[in-house]
Amino acid sequence: MSSERVVFEPAWEGNPAWGGAELYEDLAVAQLVAAQAYVDEVYEGLTEYGEGLGELLWVWGDGSWELTDGGRSTPVSVESRQVCTVSSTGGSMVTAEVLGLAQEFRVPVPEIGVGGYGEVVVQRDRAGMDRWAVTDGAVTGLRAWSETAAGSDWHYVSDVGRAAAFRHTLGEALRLAKVVAGIEVERYRARVTGPGDGGSVDGAG
User: Fold this and answer.
1) Is residue 144 part of a domain?
2) Cα–chain-centroid distance for residue 96?
3) Most buried by CB count within 10 Å: which residue of 15, 143, 159, 165?
């Protein structure tokens, strides 16, 4: 039986054949594999990541996820594709063990200075369960994006409980993190302009 589904494909300068790239059913897996392939290719032979490798972050833009290295653009991207697949008993496209090493994913807030850390952090439940939360990444006083009677917003995990905070699958958490990043941009812009006629921060006070 055939069906259509969305899959994710790593590419180098738009070339999906780079490094034997494959199709992945999970965005997080595709990003993890692509980032590791980038490190292996660009930094091959280096004994320590400190010799040039910056913080690797994925940024959404122009219809695809773009990998950045220490704030610099790279040729690596992950694009979504709709394909027709035939079901089989061969298992998933990639083994679950690939994600076993990952404990968090960082989704940049696309505007400088937003949200303190400038990113939304998707974290795995430290109890070892495969449940994830969308958090602010704080070392202490961790907040998660949670639903309460008052609506969806940041709430301290200690207030809502870990079960309520870490309730997403990885795919759900990554999609929600992208939405939350957009909300944080709008909040930041509202704080900057204020209730007046669009004055800037420089003119405040």
Assistant:
1) yes
2) 18
3) 165
Find the mean pLDDT for residues 149-178: 88
Our count of domains for the chain comes to: 2
Burial class (CB within 10 angstroms; exposed 0-12, middle 13-18, buried 19+) of 51: exposed
6 vs 67, higher pLDDT = 67
User: Which residue, chain included where needed, has tokens 């083994």?
Assistant: 95
Q: Find where tokens 């180098």 sit.
A: 12
156 located within any domain: yes
Is pTM beyond 0.85 here? Answer: no
d(CA 179, CA 76): 23
Give domain status of residue 64, yes or no.
yes
Same domain, 60 and 136: no
Whether the Cβ atoms of residue 168 and residue 134 lie closer than 8 Å to each other: yes
The kind and range of the H/E element at 179 are helix 170-193
> Is pLDDT of 86 > 70?
no
Closest CA to 81 of 61, 100, 63: 63
Taking the C-alpha atoms of residue 146 and residue 153, their distance in angstroms, rounded to an integer, is: 6
Residue with tokens 């202490």: 140
- Extended strands (E) in 17-150: 56-61, 64-69, 72-86, 104-108, 119-124, 132-135, 143-148
